[in-house]
Every structure is written in C-alpha cells, then in structure tokens.
Amino acid sequence: MNTEEPDGEQPFSGLDDTPVEATVLRMMLGGQLRRLREAAGITPEQAGFEIRASRSKVSRLETGRVGLKGRDVQDLLTLYGVTDEDVLEKVLALVRQSNTPDWWAKYNDILPGWFEAYLGLESAASTIRSFEIQFVHGLFQTEDYARAVTRPGRKGAPAGEIEDWVRLRLSRQALHARQKPPRIWSVMDEAVLRRPVGGAAVMRAQLRHLIEAAAMPHVTLQVVPFSRGRHAAESGSFTVLRFEERDLPDVVYLEQLTGAIYLDQRSDVEQYLEVVDEVSGEALTPDDTTRFIEQVARET
Question: What residue ranges of the chain are covered by domains with CATH 3.30.870?
Fold first, then answer.
C-alpha cells in the first residue's frame, strides 16, 4: 500500500524533535493518524477494532484528547500500510515524548480536564483572537486582578488552592516572552473596564497593565464603548485559536461555569471569525483604545 501523502510528502515528515508541549504533540500525531486512516480508506470503526477500542476512542486519539500508547499507534500504522522501520521508530519516539508531563501537570489536583485541553491549544496557537464581555482576558490579568476573579467562583476553597489557580493563570502569560509569541488580538466590551473587580486600586493597576500590554508588538487591544449600543458579540465571550500546523484545525473555545465547549467544524469557526471581525470594526481603533483606557483609569 502506498503511504505517501497526496502531495508527495512522507507520513510524519512534518514532525521532528523540536520541543513542543506534549499536549500539542498528541494533537499533531493524532491529526497525522487521521489523515493516514482516511487515505487508506479505513473507517474509525475498523481502526477501533484493530486496537480493541470504540469508535469514540479513535476519535479522541485523532484529536489528541487522550494519551497515545505505543502498541496502539504501531498497530494502527500497520493497518494503514506504514511499514517503514525508520518511520515507525521515529513515530514511537514521538509517542513517548507526547506522554511526558506538560508544565501545567503540577496543577493536576485543581485542573479540570476541559481546561487542560485549552492550555494545550493556547500554547500551540499562532493567533489568538478573543472577545471579552465581563473580565480581562487571562493573558493580560495582573496577579491581584486574577485573585479577585478567582475567589468568587471557588467559595469555600482553601487559600492554597486559590493561590494555585492564580499561579496557573499567570504562568500562561509566559508566552508573551517567547522568541516568536502568538499574535493576540483581544476585543473587550467597555463593561470589562468599568467593573470594579477587586476594588479601585486593583482596577487602576489592571488598567495600567492593559496599557502596557497594548504596546507589545504582538498584541492588539480594542474596546467597544457603550456608546456603540448593541454589537455583534453581545451574546458572550469566546476565543478563536488558530494554528500554523495543518494537523491542528482552528478551534473556538466557549467557557462555561463547569465546563467548556470546543468547536472545530469549519462552518462554526468561520461564523465566529465573522463576528470577531465585525465587532473589531465596531470597536475603537487600538490607539483610541489606549487613550480610552487611560481615561477610565483616571476616573477609577
């Protein structure tokens, strides 16, 4: 069976030993497995039978939502006609790498699975576009603001757990210091700036931090002022994550009280991209946004 890609690329030739988050690597490996399965004309049910698993298990493997086992991957590759020993050895090495703990593993005692998936996507994204209707995006929160946001949703939690959540939130911001950080374009409703989270002093510091963030070359911030009236994104906050790797489809992330929704169907993603484009057009320009935040800070 021919295992070359339609464009002549060999299976897994786009994956090397460059360090990436384990979660991201699982997603990339899963995407490659899906493409090989489809090229071989094999159904998810047939693949599941080969590794003694259900169709849903195969789906989770192909989206990187579960860990990969070397034996399962080897059996699937054999089924798909990939028999080159060098390829198999490389893939199995990547499988082992994909099962190493991510940086957020130390927070496993507090971290729900639905948010762990988001951390992997965020760490891999080349572009992050968001609309916020209530709080400052987590990638721009100060420590005191993050603490004030965290406490109400975890009433009764011990102080140590609250502090772990704050450290987790702040650790995400390390991506700003990368040599090649993702392009981040965040649009927020004026309510985000006006809601006195943590009190006046905390909010003033948070607003100053937003002004500093807006000056970063990879960041674009915009505000939709109340004076604009209704707008296209008034139904709630969302984030669109986009990726350079072809095996990672763009994803829309919608966070809820006790879980999250991930949308990766192209039609859904395009609809949210249309909304964020529209609301960006309705918002103040980045320069006017900085001036607006400065004005709100003086009034706070």
Answer: 106-299
pTM across the whole model: 0.79
Hey, is 252 helix, strand or coil?
strand
Contact by Cβ (8 Å): 275, 224:
no
Which residue spans of the chain are classified as CATH 1.10.260.40?
22-98
For domain 22-98, say whether CATH 3.40.640.10 is its number.
Answer: no
CA angle 103-104-108, nearest 5°? 135
Per-residue pLDDT tens over the stretch 18-47: 456 787 788 889 988 998 999 999 999 999
Burial class (CB in 10 A: 0-12, 13-18, 19+), 143: middle
- Strand pairing category for 183-189 and 127-132: parallel
Q: What is the pLDDT of residues 150-195, one digit of tens each?
A: 988 788 889 999 999 999 999 999 999 999 999 999 999 999 999 9
Position 1 confidence tier, pLDDT thresholds 50, 70, 90: very low
Return d(Cα 180, Cα 123) in angstroms, integer: 12
CATH topology of domain 106-299: Endonuclease; Chain A (3.30.870)
CA 247, CA 57: separation in Å to the nearest integer?
Answer: 18
